[in-house]
Automatic annotation (TrEMBL), chain A:
Protein name: Anti-sigma factor antagonist
PANTHER family: ANTI-SIGMA FACTOR ANTAGONIST TM_1081-RELATED, ANTI-SIGMA FACTOR ANTAGONIST TM_1081-RELATED-RELATED
Highest taxon above the source species: Bacteria
One Pfam family matching this protein: STAS
GO molecular function, one term: anti-sigma factor antagonist activity
STAS domain boundaries: 1-110
From TrEMBL, chain B:
Membrane-spanning ranges: 12-31, 43-60, 80-98, 110-132, 152-168, 174-194, 206-225, 245-267
Domain PPM-type phosphatase: 464-684
Protein name per UniProt: Serine phosphatase RsbU (Regulator of sigma subunit)
Entry keyword Amino-acid biosynthesis: no
Organism for this UniProt entry: Rufibacter quisquiliarum
GO-annotated molecular function: phosphatase activity
Length: 112, 691
């Protein structure tokens, strides 16, 4: 699992590469728990190379969901592979989180 | 051994009888010579009797002296001296203590002969005893060659008895003398087998030297008496003519003398031997300390004690503890605390550049002339610092001080090093042992957890005529996060729940147990599936940690009404086969997992679906471990493949459908399990006429 982030203005784009399993979700949790992330108003998550997400990985996003919402930070997923999206859908997270097709869409929604 | 006993008894008897007869015969002979009267006595008879006597005594001793099994040599030496050599002293006492005997001896032929005969008896007994004791000494830690050599020596010596038996005047036959000389040389050759001396400790060596000297003296006394009268014309029998006596006497003398000399000259080296022996023993104790159940503290104490003994250090201390912190525990011997601090400070100064090399052995054999230690005015001249460390871990340092210069030579360092190495090995083994015991305990507890969890999952569903249920459940680890359960709500209604706790292992297992409790608690109120999910979400919100959530689905089957109503909280879609339409499909309902939203708004996220079933319909409930099962090339099993499997097997009994699906899954994954897997197959049957 590789986690990269690019920053522009008030937006941070986190790209996930590989499998988000029990061990790598700890890394992600550290990333999202970093207080500096609260300085941004938009968090875009690039899921293009995310091949698999385990329940532990979902748990990380779920645990931060409320915090971001309270701080009025937008969390947007994009470029999600079909089978990963399916996992989000089965759990009902697609209605709770913003999942869009492309980066452009994500930027548009973020700027709304 | 009865045979030995019999021989001993017989030889004892013949020995006694032959000696008495010998005495009588000698007296008769003396009388004959003295008075010129012819009587029963015969010189030849005397030879025969003496040979029988000698044979008997030697045979007796041969079986009496036991083989040397332990390195205890002083006791046999004492026996030789007290039982054998004492005869010489007794005779000497009689002889010198009562000078009148001497006079009488010269006057009275009978008395002289009798005295000589008694002396002969003592001598033979002593020789036999010494001869066979020496045999055992020579054969201590024997080799096969040595045994053969000794056997031949014994045979040859015994053969020399033929000389008096055949009444040969051996002095007249040069080749016989030569033979006997060779035999004597052979005896001398055997006398170099003095291995036993090396096994004596210093004290024992001194004692042995004393005993050997006393034995030697008794030999000299015996010979003195034997030869003093041998040429006396009054004497009727002269045993110096008997080569057997001469040879054994010479052999016993040689061996005693060589033993004495070797013991004497090995005295200075015996301390070294003892030291090496002590080192070896300490080493053994160190290696055996694990079996004896000693703890680390005791191992260190053992090392400290052994190393001081081995190196002859005048002062020493041992620092050890977790990675040798400054507060390390310490064994100390005659090294006062300020001195210890001084030395350590000086060491730290001198070794600044070597700080990185923790395993460095520090030796300074001339402290008073070294720049760093000169100012300390130490009462010591040599210092050795030996690290205790393995490749992975550091255990401590051993400091040894000696008052002499050049106190630690390479040999000492090697010995100390092997001790520290062995200690490190022992400590590591001790820790490994502890760890493995701990692991064993954890494993045992996991096994119990696994058993407990197994009991939380029902093995059998109620059997009835309206449905068949078959279940499969397999945890990836000892305990898992999958669960299912049922509750009979009324005569015609049953609630079935399936769930999957996020994460794996113990924490998942705990939440799974919690979920089971919530299910049984809430369903007492006969809630609708969606109501149940709302309440369960609220209950779980209070106890689930932030990153955890649970997916679940609850089905309430009413077989009087032939309907099933259910709610899906983020759980895998329910697979269904409709017998009427001959169609296999997934119920596409919406519903959020439990514990994701932890407030009242969750109620909006969960929905209830009602479906009227037909006899022959099949419902397949499962966890994501099934559809996310992976093949070797990381392909997922998937919903489609599961759907296809049901479309092929719906006509079978529930048990067979389950088996078919699970076989397919295991084939697909090639029997590797990444996640917990649970599968329930419910097949509805026509309502029975009587219900």
């Amino acid at each position: 699992m590789k986690i990269k982030h690019t920053i522009s203005d008030n937006t941070i784009t986190i790209s996930l590469d590989g499998e988000l399993d029990a061990s790598s979700s700890v890394m992600l949790d550290e990333e999202l728990s970093n207080p500096s992330i609260m300085m941004f108003s938009k968090i875009l998550v690039d899921c293009k190379n995310l091949n698999y997400i385990s329940s532990a990985g979902l748990g990380v996003f779920i645990s931060h969901l409320q915090r971001f919402e309270d701080a009025q930070i937008k969390l947007i997923f994009f470029n999600m592979q079909e089978k990963v999206r399916n996992v989000f859908e089965i759990l009902g997270l697609d209605l709770l989180m913003t999942i869009v097709g492309s980066y452009e869409e994500a930027v548009t929604i973020a700027n709304d | 051994m009865p045979k030995d006993k019999r021989i001993k008894r017989l030889s004892f008897f013949t020995g006694c009888v032959s000696w008495v007869l010998l005495l009588v015969n000698v007296l008769f002979l003396a009388r004959q010579r003295h008075e010129g009267e012819a009587n029963l006595a015969e010189p030849y008879l005397n030879n025969l009797l003496s040979v029988i006597f000698i044979l008997s005594v030697f045979l007796y001793q041969r079986y009496r002296v036991h083989a040397q099994r332990t390195a205890e040599f002083t006791a046999p030496l004492q026996a030789v001296l007290l039982k054998g050599g004492a005869g010489a002293y007794l005779t000497a006492l009689l002889f010198f203590g009562y000078p009148s005997i001497q006079e009488m001896g010269t006057n009275n032929v009978f008395l002289l002969d009798a005295f000589y005969q008694v002396l002969f008896g003592f001598l033979v007994y002593f020789l036999a005893k010494a001869f066979y004791t020496w045999r055992q000494f020579i054969l201590y830690q024997k080799t096969k060659d040595l045994m053969t050599q000794w056997k031949w020596f014994e045979i040859l010596v015994a053969l020399s008895l033929l000389v008096p038996l055949l009444n040969v005047e051996y002095m007249k036959h040069i080749f016989l003398i030569l033979d006997l000389g060779l035999l004597l040389a052979y005896g001398l050759y055997l006398s170099v087998n003095l291995r036993w001396v090396a096994f004596l400790s210093l004290d024992k060596k001194w004692l042995s030297i004393f005993l050997l000297a006393a034995i030697l003296l008794s030999i000299v006394l015996f010979s003195h008496f034997l030869f003093q009268y041998s040429d006396s014309p009054e004497l009727v029998v002269d045993y110096t003519d008997n080569p057997f006596i001469l040879i054994t006497l010479a052999f016993v003398f040689c061996y005693t003398l060589s033993s004495l000399l070797v013991a004497l000259f090995s005295l200075p080296t015996s301390r070294v031997f003892e030291q090496k022996n002590a080192d070896l023993l300490s080493f053994q104790r160190l290696t055996q300390s694990i079996q004896q159940g000693q703890n680390e503290e005791e191992v260190y104490a053992l090392l400290f004690e052994s190393v001081i003994k081995a190196s002859g250090a005048d002062a020493a201390w041992l620092e050890y503890g977790e990675d040798a912190k400054p507060s390390a525990r310490r064994h100390n011997e005659s090294a006062p605390d300020p001195l210890v601090q001084d030395i350590k400070r000086a060491l730290a100064q001198s070794g600044k550049d070597k700080q990185a090399d923790w395993n460095h052995i520090f030796i300074n054999n001339d402290l008073r002339h070294s720049s760093t230690f000169k100012d300390l005015q130490l009462p010591f001249h040599s210092l050795l610092v030996m690290p205790l460390a393995s490749n992975k871990r550091r255990y401590g340092h051993l400091y040894l001080l000696r008052e002499v210069e050049q106190g630690f030579d390479q040999d000492t360092i090697n010995v100390v090093q092997s001790f520290t190495n062995q200690t490190v090995l022992t400590i590591e083994n001790l820790r490994l042992l502890e760890e493995s015991l701990q692991n064993e305990r954890y494993k045992e507890e996991l096994k119990i957890a696994s058993l407990v969890q197994d009991r939380l999952i029902p093995k059998t569903f109620p059997t009835d005529t309206w449905f068949e249920i078959s279940s499969y459940s397999q945890a990836a680890k000892e305990v898992g996060g999958d669960f299912y359960d049922f509750l009979q709500l009324s005569e015609s209604r049953i609630a079935i729940i399936i769930g999957d706790v996020s994460g794996k292992g113990i924490s998942a297992a705990f939440h799974m147990a919690q979920m089971k409790g919530i299910f049984h608690g809430l369903m007492q109120q006969d809630l609708l599936p969606d109501e149940f999910m709302v309440q369960a979400n609220s209950a779980l919100s209070r106890c689930l940690e932030r990153t955890s959530f649970i997916t679940s689905a609850l089905y309430i089957i009413d077989y009087k009404m032939q309907g099933v109503s259910f709610a899906r909280a983020g759980h895998c879609h329910t697979l269904y086969y409709n017998a009427m339409m001959e169609d296999t499909f997934y119920f596409q309902t919406e519903g959020l997992g439990l514990g994701i939203i932890r407030d009242a708004s969750y109620a909006k996220r969960i929905h209830r679906l009602h479906y009227d079933y037909n006899p022959g319909d099949v419902m397949v409930i499962y966890t994501d471990g099934i559809i996310e099962a992976r093949s070797e090339d990381q392909e997922e099993y998937g919903e489609d493949r599961l759907k296809y499997m049901l479309s092929q097997t719906y006509h079978l009994e529930a048990e067979d459908i389950k088996s078919a699906i699970m076989n397919d899954v295991t084939d697909f994954t090639n029997d590797t399990l990444h996640d917990d897997q649970t599968l329930l197959v419910i097949k509805f049957k026509p309502r029975q006429p009587n219900t």
